[in-house]
Design goal:
Layout: H1 6-11, E1 17-19, H2 28-36, E2 40-44, H3 50-63, E3 68-73, H4 79-86, E4 92-96, H5 104-109, E5 113-118, H6 121-130, E6 134-138, E7 144-146, H7 152-163, E8 168-171, H8 177-185, E9 191-193, H9 195-198, H10 207-215, E10 221-224, H11 226-231, E11 240-244, H12 247-252, H13 256-261, H14 263-276, H15 299-316, H16 322-329
Helix pairs in contact: 2-3, 6-7, 8-15
Length: 330
């Protein structure tokens, strides 16, 4: 791989690609596979369940000798969860959705690279001020939780300009090498990729959920609070989650107060559906890049495919410059 950026130099990567820390999906096996293949794999610590963290962080630490990391949902992160994650000696620690400042000193003291995900220029400036080593600019196209404050194409260069010289990673709708090449041309130093890695052999996602991602299109997704309501997660403003549209969402969208009132009946059914792989009711988080997912691939093959395609796209861009073609022909 010849693409060299601040991201690849920092962690000694072969590809400027980070797998997103998707809760309950980005386990230790996926993170290790991504890191071992030359990207930066992140374990999705989500809401900070200690038993899950211990198990999955043990897997990734044993599974690769290359740099890896962990991510937590900021507004739910506790000192105990952060300390537990740090005890496994990750190389990178990512926070998303909220003020990370209470945890920054511990991250820095551990010598861990700090990655902060934001959804606006204002939050990006705050992240840089907080000491982020990398800022992730997440567009509204992203799967899972995010905000409606800006799509990837205009948000990334705006954040790049605002926080320079802090390096920026792009997130939201990036699912192949073309998206990675575009992110680099916008000034990003790499890409954080979520939904595409959900549909990987090594992800902890249910096999049926992966097949639904392969069959889905970007138009099949919707930002909503319905799935947080039924799961009992009181996400703060302005965050919603982008997921595949299904009969459960169709039934309750716009009727969140009614769903609150019906939780005694609906919450157990939802938990059972999740365990059984019934995704007419259970949630499949998905970004708008679902159109580009055509197979359930091994992580190593996906990284190589994305990297080679990005390199080819960047090289072919020279052909768009007439002067370069004329000079080459002489």
């Amino acid at each position: 791989m010849v693409i060299q950026t601040a991201l690849t130099e920092k962690f000694g990567l072969d590809y400027p690609i980070v797998s997103a820390p998707m809760a309950q999906v980005s386990g230790g096996r996926l993170a290790a596979a991504v890191s071992d293949a030359g990207g930066l794999g992140l374990v999705g610590g989500g809401y900070g369940d200690p038993d899950w963290l211990r198990e999955e962080l043990s897997v990734v630490r044993a599974g690769t000798e290359r740099p890896w990391g962990v991510g937590l949902i900021t507004w739910r992160a506790t000192r105990e969860a952060v300390e537990l994650a740090l005890s496994f000696e990750p190389h990178a620690f990512m926070f998303s959705f909220g003020d990370p400042s209470p945890h920054v000193p511990a991250i820095k003291e551990a010598g861990c690279a700090l990655i902060l995900q934001v959804q606006s220029v204002e939050d990006a400036l705050a992240a840089a001020q907080a000491g982020a080593d990398f800022v992730v600019a997440q567009g509204t196209e992203a799967g899972g939780h995010g905000a409606d404050s800006g799509s990837t194409l205009p948000l990334v260069p705006a954040v790049v300009d605002a926080v320079s010289p802090t390096p920026v990673l792009a997130a939201g709708g990036i699912a192949d090498g073309r998206g990675l090449a575009a992110a680099l041309m916008l000034g990003a130093e790499g890409a954080l990729v979520g939904t595409r890695f959900y549909a990987c052999e090594e992800s902890s996602g249910h096999p049926e959920a992966k097949e639904r991602l392969v069959a889905a299109s970007g138009g099949d997704t919707k930002r909503t609070r319905v799935f947080d309501v039924v799961r009992g997660h009181g996400w703060p403003e302005p965050y919603t989650g982008r997921a595949l549209y299904n009969p459960f969402l169709e039934r309750w969208e716009g009727r969140e107060e009614d769903l609150f009132a019906a939780l005694d009946a609906e919450a157990p059914r939802f938990r059972d559906a999740t365990a059984e792989g019934d995704f007419d009711r259970a949630v499949v988080w998905s970004g708008e890049g679902a159109d580009l997912i055509r197979d359930v691939a091994p992580a190593a093959g996906l990284l190589r495919r994305m990297g080679e395609e990005a390199e080819a796209r960047l090289r072919s861009a020279r052909d768009l410059l007439g002067g370069v073609r004329e000079e080459t022909a002489r």
